[in-house]
Amino acid sequence: MRLSDAEWKVMKAVWDHQPSTARQVLNSVGNDTGWAYSTVKTMLTRLTDKGALSSEMRGNTAVYSPRISQGDAQRSAVRSLLDRAFGGAMAPMLRFMTDGSDLSAADRAAIRDLLQQTDEGAR
Amino acid sequence: MRLSDAEWKVMKAVWDHQPSTARQVLNSVGNDTGWAYSTVKTMLTRLTDKGALSSEMRGNTAVYSPRISQGDAQRSAVRSLLDRAFGGAMAPMLRFMTDGSDLSAADRAAIRDLLQQTDEGAR
DNA sequence: GCGAAGCTATTACACTTGTAGAAGGCTGTC
DNA sequence: GACAGCCTTCTACAAGTGTAATAGCTTCGC
To answer: Protein footprint on strand C: which nucleotides are under 7 Å from a CB?
Structure first.
C-alpha cells in the first residue's frame, strides 16, 4: 500500500481519531493544509477505494475507519525507501539518520558505535 | 529535490558511473526495467531540467553528470519520509527499522537498547 | 413547512510520472 | 556516396495526485 503525501495527512487524522467523519478530518488537518471540505472528501473516497479505509454510513454521514494500521503503513514506507534509495541495505540508511538528526549527540555517537560493530560483523 | 522511483534508478546508474551517456544508463538499468532507450532519454532530460544532472555534449552525444550527491539525495529522502510518515520523530522510525530487518538479532537488540535510553533521556 | 447548513456524489482540471514512438541528423564503413 | 546504426528532440498518452466546484439530497431549527 503506497500512500501519497496528502493521503498520509488524512490517514494520520483517522488513525488519531477513529472512526472519523470528513468534517472531523477537515478540522484536524484543515489549519495546516487549507483544504476545502471537498478535497478531504475526495481523499477519503480514494483511500476507501484503495482499501486503506473502510466507510460506513451513520445516518446520512459517512464515518471512516482505518483498514491498515499506522504501523503497517510506516513499516512499508520504510521498506520502500530502503529499497528505492539504499538498495535495501539497512546500515547505510541508519548512518544517514545519525547525521544532523534530532537525536542527542550521545545518541548519535551510540548509533555510530553500533554501526561500526555491524560493519565489523559483516566483514 | 524529490526523486521518483524511476528517477532513483537512473540517478543510481549515473552515480555509479560518472559521467554516463544514455546508452550506458540503459545498459546499466535495462535488464532490470526493460526500458526503451527513449524512456531513459526522457528520464535523463527530466532530471537535467530538475537540476539533478548536468549534461554536456561530447561530439553528438550527451554525457550526464550528477549535480547532487547520492548522499544528499538519500539524506533528503530520509528526511522527507521522516516528516511524512513519522511526524519528524526519529526514534519511532528507528524502532520500525529494527523489526524484521536485515540486521542480525544482536544488532537489533542493540538498537532497541539504544532507543530505550533515548526514551528515558526524553522523559 | 421552509430555509440554512451540512452531507453525498459527480465532474474537472492541471501537474507529475511511467513509458515510449517517430522523425530527422551525424558517422563510419563498404 | 549510400546505408545502417546510433543520437537527438518532439510529441503522446494513460494513470496517479492535488485541489476543488457544483448539484442535489437531508435535516434541524424556527
So the answer is: 6-12, 16-22, 25-27
